[in-house]
Amino acid sequence: MVLPGKFLATVKLAGIESFNNGNPEGSGNGLFSNNVEFVSPQFALTYEHRQKWGVTAQVAGAVSGRNVLAAPAVSVGVYLKVGG
Fold first, then answer.
1. Residue 63's Cα: distance from chain center in Å?
2. What is the mean pLDDT of the chain?
3. Is residue 20 included in any domain, yes or no?
4. pLDDT digits (tens, 9 = 90+) for 24-39
5. In this structure, are residues 76 and 57 in contact, taking their beta carbons and an 8 Å threshold?
6. How many helices (H) and strands (E) does the chain have?
7. Would 12 disulfide with which of 23, 34, 42, 64, CB 3.0-4.6 Å?
8. 3-state SS track over 4-51
9. pLDDT level of residue 75 (50, 70, 90 thresholds)
10. 33, 46 contact by CB (below 8 A)
11. Is position 1 within any domain?
């Protein structure tokens, strides 16, 4: 095998529902504004090498939303397991 290790694929559906409890124009910051709603599917692929370290990549985006940025988000990370 070219890559000795294991792959793990994950799918997650995240969302936020607004309480409609504020003026969305009141906040000057789009990141933390009122009445935010969205549904976001997220897909990730993780490669773990010899149960010690790994690499993970994730893609997420909003399929519906209100008062949110809907551009896809891409993240990549490296991790190292320590301890027991």
1. 13
2. 80
3. yes
4. 565 555 556 667 788 8
5. yes
6. 0, 5
7. 42
8. CCEEEEEEEEEEECCCCCCCCCCCCCHHHCCCCEEEEEEEEEEEEECC
9. very high
10. no
11. no
Q: Which residues pair with 55 in a beta bridge?
A: 47, 78
Q: Which of 40, 38, 39, 79 has its CA nearest to residue 57?
A: 79
How many other CB atoms sit within 10 Å of the CB of residue 40?
19
Residue 76 lies in a domain: yes
* Residue 63: partners with Cβ closer than 8 Å, 6 or more residues away: 39, 40, 41
Domain carrying residue 25: 6-80
- CA dist 57 and 49 (Å) reads 15
Q: Output 71-75 pairs: Cβ under 8 A, ≥24 positions apart.
A: none
- pLDDT grade for 17, boundaries at 50, 70 and 90: confident
Specify if 72 maps to a domain.
Answer: yes
* Count of domains for the chain: 1
pTM (two decimals): 0.66
Token output for 5? 């290790």
